[in-house]
Amino acid sequence: MRNYRAIQSLCRHSSLRLATLASVLLLSACQPSPEERLAAANQYMATGDYPAAIIEVKNALQADPDNAAARALLAEASYRVADFETATDEYRRALAGDESIDNYLGLGRSLLRSGNAVEAFDSVHEHLPDSSDDERVHVLMGEIYSALGNYANAQAAFQRAVDIEPASVGGLVGMAVVTGAQGDTAQARSLLIKATEADPSAARAWTVLGNFERVAGNLDAATAAYKKAVALDSPALPVSERFEARAALITTAIETRDLELAEGELALLQALLPGHPTLNYLRGQLAFVQGDADTAASEMQKYLSRVPNDARAQAVMGAISYSQNHFSQAEMYLQQARLGNAGESGNRAVNRLLAETRLRLNRPDDALAILSDSNASEIDDPALLGLLGRAEFSAGNRATAMEYFEQGRQAAPDDLAINLMYAVALLTEGRNDDAVEVLESLPPAADDTLHRRSMLLIAAQVRASDLTAARATADELIATNPEDAAAHAVVG
Predict the structure, then answer these.
(1) Residue 51 CB neighbours (<10 A)
(2) Beta-strand (E) ranges in 27-109?
């Protein structure tokens, strides 16, 4: 009886194991093969569903980890979702089994986009011969040379790409970037327009054209170019290109104070790469122009914690700190931005704000040191002349300061700011009648400027002992600013 039960138990366990084995075999038979998974991944790639393609390729690689084609496909899908580190690793693994031009091009692109131009050159240069008739080879080498600052070789490489394929968008855009970097912005713009004409669907060409228009100060033209790039947005485009175009449009929208457009585009941008540090930068910029300095500072600090050497972000953080009256902190950020490279126009703005900050810190000599490169005889910018005048005045150089103020008024006779600065200097010098004459000659202005002009004029008229005129100006000030406590105090 005992033996019978043992046999019965053995049979029962054997049947269970057989059933389990059968289930496993049946389940395995239902799983797609590596080839089928790769075919599905390629279909996902064609429709721009790169995350789904990555899943399929990774499943295929579990069964066949040495499949070079699968490694290359995983690398390309990773590149297209802006995961450049994974793309670089996978292209290297793909090259172990397939040293094709496509894989070397992919490796070079991935290294370049992750900021490793030297490594990109070392890794691919000897495998991409100058004699190649593949236009893509010369575009990539041109981009690498350009990133390394070797503009002569970059120009030659891009020209070779255009010689092979006259409608090469990569070649034309690359030549434009190099030409612009060498100072010929007119030729650069012409090349970019040619690129957009060669392929109107090339979103990157429109984005770079927008960049050139923005640097030139043509913000309306820049916005139009960025909008065309964004309109070409498609899941089939690499995420980095889609992100770049929309981020550029947001930046220009902020600069032109089209805050509704900026907010809408920022919401769309966050869906592309939710954790990208540029989002902190853009959120900080937007909050700053909306008057929310605390949020702006928080977002910009998060950005700088991840991208600490960005001169433009340091400049913005300096401006935020200045607006909060944190002048020592503002000076620190602005000095860092000055040592970096915020672009030509950015550097001018940084120098001026740094000089303003040092004036607020009661260090006029240090402010003048920042502005020492200015050739006073050639300056026709009333804002800069006013800043120089204020710095010289605070440093005790009254005569030089008055020359700057007068030069600024000659450059822009109707500029209210320079006239108000001049009037303050005249009052400080005791030239009350001259101050009254300057202030009374000012044209109608916005409420805030009119308010400051009226305040100064009352002070000048009182000092000039013309109390009747002072009362008349005070009555006018009260009539236009009935709720202003400061106006009532001045009148009192």
Answers:
(1) 10
(2) none
| Residue indicated by tokens 């002072």 | 470
> What are the C-alpha distances in Å from 135 to residues 157, 159, 161, 203?
9, 10, 5, 19
> Which among 234, 310, 301, 304 is positioned nearest to 272, based on CA atoms?
234
Angle between helical axes of 432-440 and 447-463 (0-180°, round to 10): 150
Q: Is 16 exposed, middle or buried (0-12, 13-18, 19+ CB in 10 A)?
A: exposed
Classify 128 as helix, strand or coil.
coil
Instruction: Find all residues with CB under 8 Å of 293, minimum gap 6, and list them.
Output: 287, 320, 323, 324
Q: Is the pLDDT of residue 2 over 70?
A: no
User: Are the C-beta atoms of residues 281 and 313 closer than 8 Å to each other?
Assistant: yes
Q: How many CB atoms lie within 10 A of CB 267?
A: 9
Structure tokens at 418: 């320079």
pLDDT digits (tens, 9 = 90+) for 398-448: 999 999 999 999 988 888 889 889 999 999 889 999 988 988 888 765 555
What does the alpha-carbon distance between residue 42 and residue 386 come to, in Å, rounded to a whole number? 63
pLDDT tens digit string along 224-260?
Answer: 999 999 999 888 888 988 999 999 999 999 999 999 9
